From TrEMBL:
Matching Gene3D superfamilies: MFS general substrate transporter like domains
Topological relation to the membrane, as annotated: Multi-pass membrane protein
Residues in Major facilitator superfamily (MFS) profile domain copies: 23-398
Organism from which the protein derives: Acinetobacter haemolyticus
Gene Ontology molecular function terms on file: transmembrane transporter activity
Protein's name according to its UniProt entry: MFS transporter
Length: 407
């Protein structure tokens, strides 16, 4: 597939009459709730393992199983939905999120807990395959597509900043089940908000199986996915055992770990903002900044993380590195393969979820058989590979000189 000319690069299915700030905000907040529910398990992994008397690696299934199911949902839901109005689809997925977190909160055994996480995986996979590709249609008129995408990704960052740390903090005093109950109640409010403000979002055409790999077939988009795969696998393998590392290898208290998660999330906000602005100038260099930050954090934390101030600084660097990624990946696709974004977005979502699933599973094996320190060092070669690819495989893939706005 040939690379598009600059004049072709614009948001897919742009319709300014549909976009408004409340619609975009409703999706941003839904992203916040979904990601909080997904990664809250990381913050309370030790408590889940203790309550159900399973190993930390086994408790990690609450992360990996959700991602595995999300992988299939990201592909099957857009194909099955066909001509279903995307507003209706987003509302149904929000209902699934509410149900999933209630089941998780009141699970009487580990199997039932995993069932709740499976339902959450369906909601997450379907949401990400749908919402990000629609960001241009949900945004107010003349908002640059990079900023519209950054708004949706901001919900992910906000979940890291407020959702996961606050959920972990709440779990310290009221138990981890209370945290999931609160997310369910939040989901009910978000459902009402979406119902009131989401416009009708008719798909221009239904997605077919043969169109799923459309981004993989696009040379520039494929290079971006390859770079992301190396960087993303390394991150998710380590992040899934964030609490376990600081608890068992560094011997930090639960309260201090909660504060570190907050630091991670706040730094992620700056990473998200950074990606939204630099990504409009040079998306390749944006990825490079993330890679260098990952490498420094992963190399230094096992060696110097026992010192509280050093742990705070390096955790902030890690959070900044990952805060860049969701926005950078989406901007890369909108920049280099705009005509394929809506039909290709399920593949991006699928890639994210595969990396979460495989990364957390691999991390669980390393943690159970070795320890968290070895896990950090084992991921360094992957981060290094991503940096090499940025300056070799993706050399010359700089942003076209254009403005990507809804017209």
């Amino acid at each position: 597939m040939e690379q598009s000319s600059p004049t072709d690069i614009r948001p897919i299915e742009s319709n300014p009459s549909q976009g408004n700030w409340f619609a975009l905000l409703s999706v941003t907040l839904s992203a916040f709730a979904l990601v909080t529910g997904e990664f809250l398990a990381v913050g309370v992994l030790n408590e889940i393992a203790r309550d159900f008397q399973v190993s930390v690696g086994t408790a990690g299934l609450t992360v990996s199983l959700t991602a595995i199911v999300g992988m299939f949902a990201a592909v099957l839901i857009p194909i099955s939905a066909k001509t279903l109005d995307r507003r209706t689809l987003l509302l149904l997925l929000t209902l699934l999120m509410i149900l999933a977190n209630f089941i998780t909160a009141f699970a009487s055994n580990f199997v039932l807990l995993l069932f709740g996480r499976i339902i959450l995986g369906i909601a997450i996979g379907g949401f990400w395959a749908t919402a990000v590709a629609l960001s241009g249609r949900l945004a107010p008129p003349h908002l640059p597509i990079a900023k519209a995408t950054a708004w949706v990704a901001f919900g992910v960052t906000l979940a890291s900043v407020l959702g996961v740390p606050m959920g972990t903090w709440l779990a310290q005093y009221n138990g981890w089940r209370t945290s999931f109950t609160v997310i369910s109640l939040m989901g009910i409010l978000l459902f009402i908000f979406q119902y009131l403000y989401l416009p009708q979002l008719k798909p221009s055409s239904s997605l077919r199986w043969k169109e799923l790999p459309i981004l993989v077939q696009h040379p520039a988009a494929r290079k971006g996915l390859i770079i992301f795969i190396f960087m993303g696998f390394a991150h998710f393998a380590v992040y899934s055992y964030f609490s376990a590392f600081f608890k068992h290898q560094i011997d930090f208290s639960d309260g201090l770990i909660s504060r570190l998660l907050l630091v991670y999330g706040i730094a992620g906000i700056f990473g998200n903002i950074f990606a939204g602005y630099l990504g409009q100038i040079n998306i390749r260099y944006t990825f490079a900044v993330s890679g260098f930050a990952f490498f420094l954090a992963f190399l230094s934390l096992p060696m110097f993380g026992a010192h509280i101030m050093t742990a705070i600084v390096l955790t902030a660097l890690w959070g900044f590195a990952y805060g860049i990624i969701p926005t950078a990946v989406n901007i890369w696709m909108f920049t280099h393969a705009p005509e394929a974004v809506e039909k290709g977005m399920p593949m991006v979502t699928l890639t994210f979820l595969i990396l979460i699933a495989l990364g957390s599973m691999f991390g669980g094996i390393i943690v159970d058989h070795f320890d968290g320190t070895i896990l950090f060092f084992a991921m360094l070669p992957l981060v290094l590979c991503s940096l090499v690819l940025i300056f070799t495989l993706a050399r010359g893939l700089n942003n076209p000189q254009l403005s990507c706005e809804n017209e």
